[in-house]
Each structure stands twice: as C-alpha cells, then as structure tokens.
Specification:
The protein has an 8-stranded parallel barrel with strand order 1-2-3-4-5-6-7-8, surrounded by 6 helices. It has a single domain, classed as TIM Barrel (Alpha-Beta Barrel). The protein is α/β, with parallel strands linked by helices. Pathway: Carbohydrate degradation; 2-deoxy-D-ribose 1-phosphate degradation; D-glyceraldehyde 3-phosphate and acetaldehyde from 2-deoxy-alpha-D-ribose 1-phosphate: step 2/2. Its EC number is 4.1.2.4. Catalyzes a reversible aldol reaction between acetaldehyde and D-glyceraldehyde 3-phosphate to generate 2-deoxy-D-ribose 5-phosphate.
Length: about 230
C-alpha cells in the first residue's frame, strides 16, 4: 500500500468512526462491560457510546460523547414517563437521548400524539442535549415513516433513527434511510441502527443518507475499511 493509499484509508476509518454511536444495550450488560465499551470507543475514535440509562453517569469517556435510550425498547410508555426518564438521563450526564416512539400511535395515524410525546421529551431534555427519535422503520409503511419523521421535526428533534435493534420486524434498511433522509432534507440528522454488522452495510447506509450509525460491532466494521 502506498503512503497515499495508507493516508486515504486512515482518513476513511476516522471519518466513519466519527459517525458511530458505539452501542451496548443488552439487558445483561454489566458495569464492567460498559467500562470496556468506553475504552474501546476511545481507542477506535467513535463519536459516542450508547448505553442503558441505569449505567449513567459514566466516567473516563474523555472526548467520547454519552448517549442513552428512553422509552426503550417498546416505546409503549406514557409520555410523562419518557419525559422523566429523559430529564434524569440528562441530569446524569447524557449528551444525547434516543427515544422510542409509541408505535401504536404511528400505525393508527395518530401523528399529533407522536409529536406531543416527542415535544414532552424535548422540553424535559432541552438543547444542547441531542434528541434522536427511534421510529422503528421496519414496522412502518413508507407513508407512516414520512409522517413520523415530520412529527419529529415539528417537535424539535435533532435526529430520526431507524430502529432499536430489538423489534422482530427488523432493523435498518437502505430504503428506509433514503426515505427518512429525503423527508428531513438535511434539517435533521439520520441515524441508521439495527442489524448493521458489516463494512459494506455501514457504507451503504452512509451512501443512503445516514449521518450517524448505531453499531455494536464497531471494530469489525472499521477493520473492513483497511482490507
């Protein structure tokens, strides 16, 4: 490999790493597991770590941001509960909060209700906390994806996010990311998450318009850029 190629590869790894929320949301994850996650995120140059709210506050994160989840993984929580959870997470040092929408509202066309619950979380965790809205895109029609993304934007969210990674319908798809990116038009970020396990899949999501990636196997994805 030439010096030029080596530098280009290094830049590609750094660029992709800087888009990654290095994630550990398994229910059985321990404090030791999270500490290892943080250490690996720092080593890899990931943008953030994403952990369960019970793991906050975190120490030793350095420049790595701290993200957590809210209303996870079902989204079937009262808006007031989501708001309290978000406020607590922010108070415990979360830089970013990934909240799950109430899917029943989406599948029955109650988009005002979705906007209201997102707005409640936004009030509870105001900027500069970054608010990402998990829409569980694999469980929605295209029409529902568009409507939910519009509700998220109207409620003051910063990102829309494909998936929790826990829904049986599946995770991120290129089609969903393209549709979400077209809907928010660069005004919000788009996070692709759920089932992204290969370098090829990660690059496809970025090409489709993802501006953030939720990965648990970050090291393997980044290693694929050097092959």
């Amino acid at each position: 490999m030439s010096t030029h190629d080596s530098l280009a590869t290094s830049a590609a790894v750094s660029t992709v790493a800087s888009m990654v929320d290095h994630t550990l949301l398994k229910p059985e994850a321990t404090a030791a597991d999270v500490a290892a996650l943080v250490a690996e995120a720092r080593q890899l140059g990931a943008y953030s770590v994403c952990v369960s709210p019970s793991m906050l506050p975190l120490t030793g994160t350095g420049a790595v941001k701290v993200a957590t989840v809210c209303g996870f993984p079902s989204g079937a929580h009262h808006p007031g509960v989501k708001a309290v959870e978000a406020a607590g997470a922010a108070a415990n040092g979360a830089d970013e909060i990934d909240m799950v929408i109430n899917l029943a509202l989406a599948t029955t066309g109650q988009y005002d209700g979705i906007e209201a619950e997102i707005a409640a979380v936004r009030v509870a965790a105001p900027a500069p906390v970054v608010l990402k809205v998990i829409i569980e895109s694999a469980a929605l029609t295209d029409e529902q994806i568009v409507a939910v993304c519009r509700a998220a934007e109207a409620a003051g969210a910063d990102f829309v996010k494909t998936s929790t990674g826990f829904h049986p319908a599946g995770g991120a798809t290129v089609h969903a990311v393209e549709l979400m990116a077209a809907t928010v038009g660069g005004r919000l970020g788009v996070k692709a998450s759920g089932g992204i396990r290969t370098t090829e899949a990660a690059l496809e999501m970025i090409a489709a318009g993802a501006t953030r990636l939720g990965l648990s196997g970050t090291a393997a994805v980044l290693a694929g850029l050097t092959d």
